[in-house]
Amino acid sequence: MSTAPQQQQHTSICPADLPANVFTLQRTGQLAALFTIIRDTNTHRGDFVFYADRICRLLIEEGLNHLPVVDKSVSTPTGLKYEGVGFEGKICGVSIMRAGEAMEAGLRECCRAVRIGKILIQRDEETAQAKLFYAKLPDDIASRYCLLLDPMLATGGSAIKAVEVLIDHGVPQERIIFLNLVSCPEGLRAMHDAYPKIKIVTAWVDEKLNEQKYIVPGLGDFGDRYFTSN
Ligand code: PRP
Ligand code: URA
What's the DSSP call for residue 227? Predict the structure, then answer.
């Protein structure tokens, strides 16, 4: 029996409940279908990578909409002036390793020759506490808008630690845009409480954390599924 097309049902918190600094992608049928593929435990790595990359690209395009622009006038081949806009400042990407590195290719596709810094933060598998191991960032990062990349926002511990590193390197909160595939209310509130002025652009807000501090329904361990699973 065939199933009639239907409107997507959403059980996560509604956007009205989100902190003011949080922006979500529009929940189109396409986005819901892409997420259904990567959430499916039977999806193998090749498809997981392909469809996660598709969502990353949509997310990065939306993140770039949050960068400020200034007036810019150009001449067109018709000899007329076009009063347009250009990006206001320089940007850089900063990925939270390992999973955040999966988002770098999407950023490079949109921003040619973009500089990318790396911060290695790992969650302790027993306690879920985030631990900082390493950071290597562009020298002039303090004068750039930073697109912070991590596909998963669970307790918020890793992202909060990464923002601490950026702020220690002179980046103001107002110049940080955190780009994230799957978040949950707990992580979003923790981030907002710690750093209310950074922008968070998340592709999907899930229901909650489970006892192991994994996002549910979620998609499991993003880094394992993208880099090392079958
Ligand atoms: C995952 C994920 C985030 C973090 C989210 O990384 O990519 O960085 O957990 O959890 P949190 O919000 O509770 O801190 P993990 O430390 O498992 O390392 P990985 O990137 O190597 O998979
Ligand atoms: N890290 C992940 O990859 N997934 C989760 O659900 C939580 C942390």
Answer: I
Q: What is the pLDDT confidence band of residue 17, given thresholds at 50, 70 and 90? A: confident
Whose atoms come closest to the Cα of 215: which ligand? Answer: 2
Average pLDDT on 211-216 reads 96
* 175 assigned to active site: no
Nearest to 206 by CA among 217, 197, 193, 222: 217
7 pLDDT exceeds 80?
Answer: no
Would you call 170 helix, strand, or coil by DSSP?
coil
CB 63 within 8 A of CB 116: no
Of 39, 57, 108, 123, which is the active-site residue? 123
Atom of ligand 1 nearest to the CA of 96: 8
CB atoms within 10 A of CB 144: 20
pLDDT averaged over the chain? 94
Task: Express each pLDDT in 114-163 by its tens digit.
Answer: 999 999 999 998 999 999 999 999 999 999 999 999 999 999 999 999 99
Q: Write out the two tokens for 54.
A: 């598709």
Q: What region does 170 belong to: left with phi over 0, alpha with psi -120 to 50, or beta?
A: left
